[in-house]
């Protein structure tokens, strides 16, 4: 704000008592409700977060694809060199 006066905190900005512990609608940070919510979050992430599995499967697929692509390229290059040899032998 403009002006040289002191500003008073509004709404949520005010911290009554100036305490260090966080406090919300569930109580203190170490309350049983917080511990239960934390445990539920961990269970949810372990059961329903499939990103690590999908990333591993994707890496495996890409690795297999690249190996097969290299194999196919080497087979194609061998075919080309064999055809060239046959052509040169007929000349």
From TrEMBL:
GO cellular component, one term: transport vesicle
Domain of life: Eukaryota
InterPro entries cross-referenced by the UniProt entry: Bloc1s5
Stretches for region Disordered: 1-28
Segments traversing the membrane: none
Similarity annotation: Belongs to the BLOC1S5 family.
Protein name per its UniProtKB record: Biogenesis of lysosome-related organelles complex 1 subunit 5
Organism: Neomonachus schauinslandi
Recorded name of the encoding gene: BLOC1S5
């Amino acid at each position: 704000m403009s002006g040289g006066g002191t500003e008073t905190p509004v709404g949520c900005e005010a911290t009554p008592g100036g305490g260090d512990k966080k406090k919300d609608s569930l109580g203190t940070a170490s309350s049983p409700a917080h511990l239960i919510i934390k445990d539920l979050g961990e269970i949810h992430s372990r059961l329903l977060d499939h990103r690590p599995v999908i990333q591993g499967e994707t890496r495996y697929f890409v690795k297999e694809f690249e190996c097969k692509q290299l194999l196919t390229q080497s087979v194609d290059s061998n075919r080309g060199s064999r055809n060239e040899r046959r052509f040169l032998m007929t000349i």
